[in-house]
Amino acid sequence: MNEKFKDHIVKALNKNVRMDGRKKDDFRKITIETGVTCNAEGSARVICGETEVIAGIKMAVGTPYPDKSDEGILMTGVELYPMSNPDFEGGPPREDAIEIARVIDRGVRESGMIDTKKLCITPGEAVWMVNLDIAPINMDGNLIDIGTIAALAALKDAKMPELKNGKPDYKNLSKNPLPVSKNPIEVTVLKIGENLLVDPTQSEEKLLDARLTVSVLENSDICAMQKGGNSPLTDKDILEMVDLAIKKSKELRKLL
Amino acid sequence: MGKLLLKNKEVAVPGEVIAEGMDYLPGFGTYREKEKIIANRIGLLFVDGKVVKTIPLEGRYLPKVNDVIICRVFDVLMSGWRLDINSAYSAVLMLQEASFKYIQKGADLTKFFSLDEYVVAKIIRVSSQNLVDLTMKGPGLRKLDGGQIIKVGTYKVPRIIGKKGSMISLIKDATGCRVIVGQNGYVWIQGDPEKELLAIQTIKKIEEESHKSGLTDEIKKYLDKKVKK
Amino acid sequence: MTYKKRFDGRKFDETREIETKVGVIKKADGSAFFRIGKTIAYAAVYGPRELFPRSKQNPKKGVLRCNYNMMPFSGSGDRVRPGRNRRAGEISMVTEKSLLPVVDLSGCPNAVVDVFIELPQTDAGSRCAGICAASMALADAGLTMKDMVAAVSAGRVDDKIVIDLDYKEESYEGGHVADIPIAMVPSTEEITLLQMDGRITRDELKKAITMAKKSLKEIAEKQRKALKDKYRGK
Predict the structure, then answer these.
(1) Can you tell me the distance from the alpha carbon of B160 to that of B163, in angstroms, rounded to the nearest whole number?
(2) Tens-place pLDDT, residues C165-193
(3) Of A78, A168, A204, C86, whose CB count within 10 A is highest?
(4) Do C26 and A38 touch (CB under 8 A)?
């Protein structure tokens, strides 16, 4: 990145001007639609500015982990489709895709959103596996936050398949939803120069010094965090970022 | 008798029959198949006497001699620089074309243009394999300091500049920003943050509505309204 | 037993409902959405752009590179494991071959035009939907192409020749089934993709191809309409 160009954008941010007309703490307009793909047990499409993702749930029956023999399993995958952005390349998932998947996964898991005990079929032998896949159609930044909203909407949309001879019968979905309760909202706060901002576009992400993703519950408790970027943060930075994340999480929660 | 199946300035799409009969001649963006003239690229139909052609609406930049473009330095070579020109092809700026001043062999080239810097340059040669040579010798050709670069569609550039620069003058006058539009779709803007934002929004609007006629008047009204606020 | 009426009530020579749109992926040079019944394909075109590794470059003309992929949750039944499998590899290749005859890449030697096809939802006919979307995306990217490429499957269900088989028809158990994906250049009627599995006679094949031609010309009109709609109104 050209330093002079970065300074120029930072100066604009100092005046609370972003180059798409937003203020630093504004999200882009978000729309959520559920039931968008008929072969998934649950799905959602979230559009936020020019970022658009689809999240889909496929359920399967598998064997539980030995240390959690009576709990179902959640698996989260994110693929950075080269269709969605010229910077993405084909091939096996890169580190950044894996990080996004793990951060979304951790937010959902640590919140206790899914009651995994209720996904047990036969302890030690068979449990439900919830495959959550997040697929960007258009990628213009902030995949973690937008992917999480899509994930929550898809998980809430999902219906359990009936069991037939120990196998899921995908043709016959029951009326039973997944055992989900909480809404762990993730908000990523970027630090560019001395500015904190949310919901970055891709060009803003390229300028970041540091970022902090905070997963926030209804009661404003935090259930997961991830720091990214090459610059360090002070404790003062972190608390300011957490405060901003909590404030924005309240607005985002209303969308669900 | 020859017959036109599309009206002038209508959008023609690949495979669409534009004219029938032998009276018309196929120009850019079209080809003849027996009695028919068919479009082979998305574009606005332009009938020029007997010649039927289309003006492209979409597509990546293909380098042309004498184009003044904005480029980004991405590699420093032994005796020159390699630049990104927003195309499938990169370009080379040789030492002797970099400056009117004499640059000694072995000098530290990053002192002149270093990585990730943007310059306004002119294309002097394009080979059959699209190898591109640039020059910095000429009026208006220079390094760009500060400001920011946005990308626009290459084929929207003529509309953004406007007839004899009318559109770009509108934007400059209304926003007080300095604006340079490269033929390759890179646009450089420098001004106050709020004004820069308005310039960017205006350029995006022109880009979206570039196929419409009467755009200059519409943009004038748009800017008047925005500036008054 | 004979197949008297199609499961979904269509006429034998009728495709499922088709929806077309271009410019759906903002960061791409060209993009398209193509839905036929419950099968949905997105396609994005990037390029011409620089091709690496250099050994793959062609100094005579640009290279067309297609990539077909089903999203993990797109299929009925089990989750589709991400990554390129043999099926996706083959479909990517035949997609390339079906599009190449119309695309002129002589103006961009050594470069590549990448086409990425993603399917969020499938109900048979996904490679044809992918080809239709890809062809629209190539046109939307402003590439030189002598015509669109339209694709649909024709085939046989029991004693009937039908167009655009859905999954239920493909898995019909009361008699022989043949599935024939066909892609065509509408203006010249040249066929650029032909595959088949199942069982069919020579005369039935002839009938299937004739029926497909009519549908393919209709599909091409819908592809072109989407391209024009991008510049209409607003």
Answers:
(1) 9
(2) 999 999 999 899 999 999 999 999 999 99
(3) A78
(4) no
Residue listed under structure tokens 């088989």: C165
- Domains recognised in chain A with CATH numbers: 17-253 (3.30.230.70)
Tell me what the mean pLDDT of segment B161-187 comes to: 96
Residues comprising chain A, all counted: 256
* Topology (CATH level 3) of domain C18-229: Ribosomal Protein S5; domain 2 (3.30.230)
Instruction: Look up residue B185 and give its amino acid.
Output: G
Backbone angles phi, psi at C76, to 5 degrees: -75, 145
Please tell me the predicted confidence (pLDDT) of residue A21.
94
Residue C57 in tokens = 């470059």
The rounded mean pLDDT for chain C is 95
Scanning B158-177 for CB atoms below 8 A from C yields none
Across the interface, of A8, A15, A21, the residue whose CB is closest to B148 is A8
Residue B1 has pLDDT above 80, yes or no: no
pLDDT band of residue A171 (cuts 50, 70, 90) is confident
What's the count of helices (H) and strands (E) in chain C, helices before strands? 4, 10
Q: Note whether ipTM > 0.90 here.
A: yes
CA-CA distance, C30 to C113, in Å (whole number)?
11
- CA of C50, closest CA in chain A: separation in Å? 12
CA distance B35 to chain C (A): 13
Q: What pLDDT shows up at residue B212?
A: 86
Percentage of chain B surpassing pLDDT 90?
87
Going by C-alpha positions, the residue among C129, C119, C117 that lies closest to residue C46 is: C117
Name the class of domain B3-56.
mainly beta
Touching check for A79 and chain C: CB below 8 Å? yes
Instruction: Determine what percent of chain C is predicted with pLDDT higher than 90.
Output: 93
> By the CB < 8 Å criterion, does B38 face chain C?
yes
- The architecture (CATH level 2) of B148-228 comes to 2-Layer Sandwich (3.30)
Q: What is the pLDDT of residue A172?
A: 83
How many angstroms away from the CA of C144 is the closest CA of chain B? 5
Half-sphere exposure of B121 (CA within 13 A, CB side): 31
Look at residue C234 and tell me whether its pLDDT is greater than 50. no
Nearest by CB to A81, from C77, C84, C116: name it.
Answer: C116
pTM over 0.80: yes
Do B68-144 and B3-56 fall under one CATH topology? Answer: yes
* Residue A15 burial (10 A CB sphere; 0-12, 13-18, 19+): exposed
- Could you report the per-residue pLDDT of A205-229, keeping only the tens digit for each? 999 999 999 999 999 999 999 999 9
- In whole angstroms, what is the distance from residue A79 CA to residue A89 CA? 10
C114 to chain B: closest CA residue: B88
Determine whether the interchain pair A1/B201 forms a contact, defined as Cβ–Cβ distance below 8 Å.
Answer: no
Do strands A30-34 and A42-48 pair parallel, antiparallel, or not at all (unpaired)? Answer: antiparallel
- Considering only the top CATH level, what class is B68-144? mainly beta
pLDDT at B207 over 70: yes
Task: Give every CB contact of residue C163 below 8 A, 6+ residues apart in sequence.
Answer: C12, C13, C14, C15, C152, C153, C154, C211, C212, C215
Q: Which residues contact B217 (CB under 8 A, 6 or more apart)?
A: none
Percent of chain A with pLDDT over 70: 100
- Chain C residues in contact with B35 (beta carbon < 8 A): none
